[in-house]
Design goal:
The chain is of the alpha+beta class. It has three domains: 4-145 and 381-405, Aminopeptidase (3-Layer(aba) Sandwich); 155-239 and 304-379, Gcn5-related N-acetyltransferase (GNAT) (Aminopeptidase, 3-Layer(aba) Sandwich); 241-300. The chain contains 14 helices and 15 strands. It has helices spanning 10-19, 29-35, 90-106, 125-130, 143-146, 161-167, 170-180, 194-208, 215-225, 240-267, 271-300, 335-349, 364-371, 390-405; strands at residues 4-5, 41-50, 56-68, 75-79, 84-85, 109-114, 135-136, 152-157, 184-189, 231-238, 305-315, 318-326, 354-359, 376-379, 384-387. The strands form two sheets. Strands 1, 2, 3, 4, 5, 6, 7 and 15 form an eight-stranded mixed β-sheet that branches. It has a seven-stranded mixed β-sheet with strand order 9-10-11-12-13-8-14, with helices on both faces. Helix 2 runs antiparallel to helix 9.
């Protein structure tokens, strides 16, 4: 049965993308609606077969974003993490490419850019693209400025959390336990708490030297993804009263240990015994100071204080850690460790099996945090471009490259 173009509803399109092994959040219609806020327009296309009984079988789909040039009536056509198709199925790839090309040209597209969510070691992907006139983008010395999406990712398998927890380093497990016992409260929140998350983003951007999205951007992201429960906004709050109680409990525990250590040192004097006593005394003093600090803060912040926040989105069984932020205060309590672990637990309970931490970053601190969760270093095929109108396409490509360097 020959393939033809299909007119899918947004729900039908999104269901196909979520269920497909090469599907990605950025190929769903909510992502298209979100990108409208930053100046893009979008269309969806699909191909497949229709049986005699009217039953349709979708074999390929794509969401296309269009970015107009500032002066000329031309556009870049971009399929982020697309196409969603079996790249070894030549008939479906050809039919989908033909329809995407037609729609792109109708929308004044002169360049077609794709970066499929397909691993680089997939034997079908690169021949399928290059044989159809696509050229792979050279990432150069700074892939972050050259590529629209990073090809190198850090992805953790969360299909078996018990096994993952056992495989985590001792330091990571200790950080999770410390966060759980330090008066921190994890919250999965709604739209009304996005301003609190945005304030944490502002703090993080100022500390780490990067620009942040507007509050409207994040509220729109929530609005387009929340109807299908594909977004989780998380905050970690410090309950100063509970933190003070936890510090007092540590003081009491250390005093009991100190009493035993003093008795042991009296019976068996040694430098090791002296060091143990000194460490316990220092720990008691530190926790007493912390308890006093938390008690004073509780008077100023009776409802607590937000220390970390994130936005996590899902597409079928795949989850993506889109944004993360933290306060400058109380970072020693490890709020981000509690946040990630709770997100993983809740996501796994919903059938999510992978946690994408995003691209391998130039920031050593951020990359080191990601590595704490035993991620797999996953490389996608990369970014490919096909010229739809060669002369105009080169001009648009130049404009896009200049824009990325700004």
């Amino acid at each position: 049965m020959a393939l033809s173009t299909l007119d899918l509803t947004p729900r039908e399109h999104d269901d196909f993308v979520r269920d497909h092994p090469h599907g990605h959040l950025m190929q769903t219609t909510p992502w298209g609606r979100e990108k409208e806020l930053t100046g893009w327009t979008w269309r969806t296309v699909a191909v497949g077969r229709t049986g005699a009984d009217g039953e349709r079988e979708v074999t390929g789909a794509a969401l296309i974003l269009f970015r107009r040039t500032p002066v000329l009536p031309l556009a870049l056509a971009y399929c982020p993490r697309g196409f969603v198709v079996d790249w070894s199925d030549d008939e479906s790839v050809d039919a989908l490419l033909a329809e995407v090309t037609r729609v792109a040209r109708d929308n004044r597209g002169v360049l077609l850019r794709v970066d499929p969510a397909v691993r680089i070691d997939d034997p079908a992907i690169r021949p399928a693209l290059e044989s159809r006139g696509f050229t792979r983008t050279d990432p150069g010395d700074d892939a972050a400025k050259t590529l629209a999406q990073p090809a190198l990712r850090m992805v953790t398998d969360i299909s078996d959390l018990d096994a993952l927890h056992k495989d985590l380093s001792q330091g990571t497990r200790q950080s999770i336990r410390k966060a759980e016992k330090s008066g921190l409260v994890y919250e999965s929140v709604g739209r009304d708490k996005i301003p609190a998350f945005h304030e944490l983003m502002r703090t993080t951007g100022a500390r780490d030297g990067f620009g942040i999205r507007s509050l409207e951007y994040f509220t729109t992201l929530y609005d387009v993804l929340s109807p299908t429960d594909d977004i989780v906004v998380s905050l970690v709050r410090l309950d100063h009263g509970a933190a003070a109680e936890a510090a007092r409990a540590k003081v009491e525990e250390s005093r009991q240990q100190l009493e035993k250590a003093l008795a042991k040192r009296e019976k068996y004097p040694s430098e090791k015994a002296d060091r143990q006593v000194e460490q316990l005394e220092q720990g008691i003093a530190k926790n007493e100071a912390s308890a006093a600090e938390f008690e004073a803060s509780h008077a100023r912040h009776p409802d607590g204080q937000y220390l970390a926040g994130s936005i996590f989105a899902t597409c079928g069984t795949r989850g993506s850690y889109l944004y993360a932020a933290s306060s400058d205060e109380h970072r020693n309590l490890r709020p981000n460790y509690l946040m990630v672990w709770r997100i993983m637990q809740d996501a796994a309970a919903r059938g999510v099996t992978s946690f994408d931490f995003g691209g391998i970053d130039a920031s050593e601190g951020l990359e080191e945090f990601k590595r704490q969760w035993n991620p797999e270093r996953r490389e996608y095929a990369g970014e490919f471009t096909r010229e739809l109108r060669p002369l105009a396409g080169r001009l648009v490509d130049l404009v896009v490259r200049v824009y990325k360097r700004r």
